[in-house]
Amino acid sequence: MASLRILGEDDVRAVIDTDRALALARATLRDQAGGGSYLSSPSAMTMDASAFGSGKFKFKAANVGHLGHAGIRLISRRSAIDTGAVNYTALYRHGGLALSGLVPELWTSRIRTAAFGAATIEHLCNPGPQVVTLFGTGKIARQIAPMLGRILDIAELRVTARRAESMAAFVDTLGPRAAFPMRVEPDARRAVDGADLVVTLTDAPTPLVHPGLLKPGAVVCSMGGKNEVDIGVLRESQRLVVDDPDFASEVGDGGAWIAQGHFTHQTFIDRIDALAHEVAAGTKPGRTAPSDRIVAIVQGMAIGDIAFSAFALQEAERLGRGLVVELP
User: Fold this and answer.
1) 241/258 Cα distance (integer angstroms)
2) How is domain 115-300 classified at the CATH fold level?
3) Is the pTM of this model over 0.90?
4) Predicted pLDDT at 80
5) Which of 238, 249, 152 is nearest to 199 (CA)?
6) Contact between residue 6 and residue 101 where contact means Cβ atoms under 8 Å apart
7) What is the pLDDT of residue 81?
8) Which end of the chain has fewer CB atoms at under 10 Å, N or C?
9) What pLDDT score was predicted for residue 82?
10) What is the rounded CA–CA span in Å between residue 108 and residue 310?
11) What is the model's pLDDT at position 328?
12) Measuring CA to CA, how many Å separate 102 from each of 10, 30, 119, 130, 239?
């Protein structure tokens, strides 16, 4: 008989915090660079059952060698922005065929996105104190802010968003716990002016970052799902780094630039200078000169979801957490 361990959100939150998330992201990027972690081929499969009153389903699979698991993301939702989405990761332990774990993705998806963004950013910024601009005050932004404090010497963090109350609440909540100054800056151009790092984590349908604003040596990390960075910013930049080329060419700024006719899928792929795992492992440079402007597109990969879920499952087994079901 095989045992299936089913975790709840509380089980996952209990074992993955900010520091553990960063360590997991770093280790998984290195493992990906070494060939131990990789996406399935094709990387995703979709099925639309909405005509039958159901939802839209997506399945993404990956292997994570350093944690001894393969897995499949089971994504169930009615739309891309469905707040009622029900997502799980199904896990298979290396050395066997039986399903070994089922892990909810609400927390893992949120914190792994932030962690992989931070684990990439730390290899792109110039050394020294950093002025950081953060567009967005949502759940992922709340996770990445303290992570940036772990990896960078932050002189100031500027927070900007559409709604004044959300910016104020963000700073009021996170500011007292931060080891660096944090302030609201509602004007987008002033927020970007002089910044060393700009992180965009929004659903903005039109660009927030425009050409002529980034100083030499600055990094802009686009993590949203639509069009946050104007194509002119890429044109005046020396480096383009992405985590998943295929996904980046469909969703977010890469997908928007292709839809706008600035690239074909292939010319966008050809424009990429390095992948996140290559930069993290040091096999390709993040920057070639202190004056390089760098555009990074980091949206998260199924590799990250499987890694975070596998770690949560292993810790749950060690601590005796979760519901164990015996399978015939």
Assistant:
1) 16
2) Rossmann fold (3.40.50)
3) yes
4) 64
5) 152
6) yes
7) 61
8) C
9) 67
10) 10
11) 81
12) 14, 25, 26, 40, 39
The DSSP-derived string for 104-148 is: E-HHHHHHHHHHHHHHHHTTTSPSS-EEEEEE--SHHHHHHHHHH
Identify whether the C-beta of residue 228 lies closer than 8 Å to the C-beta of residue 208. Answer: yes
pLDDT in tens, 61-109: 999 999 999 999 999 988 766 677 889 999 999 999 999 999 999 999 9
- CB atoms closer than 10 angstroms to residue 158: 25
Task: Name the one residue in this structure whose structure tokens are 């977010």.
Answer: 252
Rounded (to 5) percent helix, strand, coil in the chain: 40, 25, 35
- Which segments of the chain have a pLDDT < 70? 1, 80-82
Q: Where along the chain do its domains lie?
A: 2-110+303-327, 115-300
Please tell me the predicted confidence (pLDDT) of residue 84: 76
Helix (H) or strand (E) holding 274: strand 274-275
Give the 3-state secondary structure of residue 150: helix
Kindly give, in sequence order, each residue whose CB lies less than 8 Å from that of residue 7, ignoring residues fewer than 6 positions away. Answer: 101, 102, 103, 104, 312, 313, 316, 321, 322, 323
Report pLDDT for 46. Answer: 92
CATH fold of the domain at 2-110+303-327? ornithine cyclodeaminase, domain 1 (3.30.1780)
| 270 residue type, one letter | D
Cα distances (Å, whole numbers) of residue 11 to 106, 120, 146, 155, 321 = 12, 27, 22, 36, 6
Strand order through the sheet with 37-48: 37-48, 56-64, 69-77, 86-93, 99-104, 2-6, 323-327
Q: Are strands 130-135 and 154-160 parallel, antiparallel or unpaired?
A: parallel
The residues, any chain, with a CB within 8 Å of residue 171's CB and separated by 6 or more, are 159, 182, 183, 184
